[in-house]
């Protein structure tokens, strides 16, 4: 195994171990010492691969979602009407947020912490591509509507539904099917279609 391949493998190992740690405790709750213990490397070895915690966190965020964001974009470029492509994108995003607990928790931590630099990082490096994909499709479907608000609402509905299931199950009227990603997807798409077809409903 070459030194370059070995270093790449070590970086991937670090990212795989660091992601659930950041997801569990948030950026401020994790130290480089915590990370070195979780990864099984000395702190000095960890600094060899990442100059500081911010750089490591940045890579964790990209590693957790960039490839998935690319897959979302691909689903939007395949055959079908703009509405059919939008449905596929929403379905794909719902499945990602439902299945990837680390990604969901990382985004929620950033919203809670409110650190402007890291929020900018999440917006530009993690959410920008799916945001642009959804917004472009909504613009194609309904040129005269507020594309920004509809895009933000749809993405946030996906994230919030998946993240709030542990709490919402204790509220009156809860139905176990509400945690089903297919049900969440159909709900979000239904709201979008209603607002796109009849703006007065908003």
N-to-C series of helices and strands? HHHHHHHHH
What is the overall number of helices? 9
Briefly note the structural class of the backbone.
mainly alpha
**Overall strand count:** 0
Rough outline? globular
Query: Into which percentage range does the β-strand content fall?
Result: under 5%
> How far is the N terminus from the C terminus?
59 Å
Q: Fraction of residues in helices?
A: over 70%
Poorly predicted tracts of residues = 198-202
The largest sheet, given as strand count, sense and whether it forms a barrel, is: none
Radius of gyration: 19 Å
Mean pLDDT: 86
Explain the overall architecture:
Helix 4 runs antiparallel to helix 5 and helix 4 packs parallel to helix 7 (116-141). 79% of the residues lie in helices and 0% in strands. It is mostly helical. Mean pLDDT is 86; it is low at 198-202.
In short:
By secondary structure, this protein is mainly alpha-helical. It has 9 helices and no strands.
Layout of secondary structure:
Layout: H1 3-25, H2 32-39, H3 43-49, H4 53-77, H5 82-99, H6 101-113, H7 116-141, H8 147-168, H9 181-197
Q: What labels would you give this structure?
A:
mainly alpha, 0% strand, disordered C terminus
């Amino acid at each position: 195994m070459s030194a370059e391949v070995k270093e790449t493998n070590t970086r991937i190992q670090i990212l795989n171990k660091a992601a659930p740690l950041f997801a569990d405790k948030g950026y401020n709750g994790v130290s480089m010492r915590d990370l070195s213990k979780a990864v099984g490397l000395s702190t000095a070895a960890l600094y060899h691969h990442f100059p500081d915690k911010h750089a490591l966190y940045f890579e964790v965020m990209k590693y957790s979602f960039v490839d998935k964001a690319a897959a979302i974009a691909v689903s939007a470029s395949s055959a079908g009407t703009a509405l059919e492509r939008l449905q596929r994108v929403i379905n794909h995003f719902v499945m990602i947020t439902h299945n990837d607990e680390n990604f969901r928790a990382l985004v929620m931590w950033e919203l809670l912490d409110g650190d402007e630099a890291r929020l900018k990082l999440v917006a530009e490096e993690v959410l920008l591509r799916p945001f642009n994909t959804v917004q472009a499709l909504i613009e194609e479907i309904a040129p005269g509507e507020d594309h920004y608000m509809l895009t933000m609402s749809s993405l946030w509905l996906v994230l919030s539904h998946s993240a709030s299931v542990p709490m919402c199950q204790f509220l009156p009227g809860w139905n176990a099917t509400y945690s089903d990603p297919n049900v969440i997807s159909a709900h979000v798409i239904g709201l979008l279609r209603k607002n796109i077809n009849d703006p007065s409903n908003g």
